[in-house]
Amino acid sequence: MSAARLLIVDDEQSLLDFLSVLCAGEGYEVATATCIREARERLAERTPDLVLCDMLMPDGNGLDLLREIRAVESGPAVIMMTAYTSTRSAIEAMKAGAYDYVPKPFDVDELKVVIHRALEKTRLAEENVYLRRELAERYAFKNIIGRSPRMQTIFGLIERVARTTSTVLIEGESGTGKELIARAIHFSSPRAGERFLSINCGAMPEALLESELFGHERGAFTGAVRDKHGLFQEAHRGTLFLDEIGEMSLPMQVKLLRALQDKTVRRVGGTVEEAVDVRIITATNQELREKIARGEFREDLYYRINVIPVGLPPLRERREDIPLLVGHFLHKNCATLGLKPKKLSAEALSLLEGYTWPGNVRELENLIERAVALSASDVITAVDLPDYLASGSRATAASADLPEEGLDLEAFLDRIRTDLMHQALARTGGVQTQAAELLGMTFRSFRYYARKAGLTGS
Questions:
Q1: CA 52, CA 115: separation in Å to the nearest integer?
Q2: Domain enclosing residue 295, as ranges
Q3: What whole-number distance in Å separates Cα of residue 421 and Cα of residue 328?
Q4: Is residue 240 one of the residues assigned to a domain?
Q5: Is pTM beyond 0.90 here?
Q6: Contacting residues for 83 by C-beta, under 8 A, at least 6 apart
Q7: Looking at the domain assignment, is residue 402 inside a domain?
Q8: DSSP notation for 45-62
């Protein structure tokens, strides 16, 4: 790591020499200036990481230089120095954007600490800017892969949605990329500079979920040893993504609805309402209207979160995107593992394009990762793919001739899914996790369809 660069500005040559030796001894690269004009020249030549500037200079006021430096985005931190200490000048310097204010004569150890802290703050700020830019680049719309007409329509909708603050409901099967879409909305929005936080509403008990969302007061329950901010407070001015909102209990739905309506939250065990400014994006793989009909989801909450609906199609309904996704995942996994680029044979690609993909894009990504890791060749062939793809057993399970009078396709597919799930449960002795694995489904997706079809298992 290169040494931090310091610019020291003072018209007293003996002090300038002392500070130069002191800072060089601490491992810093030091430049000096004896007046404001020289300081501007040094700043134009090379931007330092930190400026130590005297308040009173022969050709101007150090505060003027401070304001010039702070007017530049991502400019260096500034520490003001003066022998003329006063509360007023200190306040003026801090208001103008100084990191700190130190009086002469210096306490050398204290000055070292102040310099170190200022540089550390600058480093963290630069890292924060870099990471945010990296995130924004990673989750930009251009990185969401899809050339199918349905995906192109969705991209256009999302780009328009990103410019608003409206609540969004993303619907789609497990593995279709709902969180990826949510992140793209955030990082393309005016809130991109603030935090994006997410939580799976079905992954924790109700009491814990309430604490995670709204925070809690010390002593609110056993184990609450200190006050804690909730995700609503942490995501203030940013975006909060509530995944699997269909799994949220009815009592929690009431509390969430109140927070969305009033734009305030109250910590568990607290009495004070805190105002929050948070954009809410929700997602579900369930049919919320069906849950409303069964009394399992509040209709008023549904309309509150469903301001702008975004429906993601399953992978089987956009097969033309499979070659693009395969190429992306091949490049990604080869780069991660430090391998030479690999390709997919035409036969292998044909198998992937013919498969029904119950686990959607996530299943495809996992399959490519496995193939890249296990294949010894630069070309991945059908032999490197799972047996169920090569045999075509799953892909042909739903094949049928179309009756002359037509058919209800959704009902037909539901019957096939239910039949295969019943067979899988029978084969695994009723163990749903094993049955889900046998069918290439996520456990959550399997459990949902099992409940919908009235299938039993453990």
A1: 9
A2: 139-312
A3: 32
A4: yes
A5: no
A6: 103, 104, 105
A7: no
A8: H---SEEEEESEETTEEH
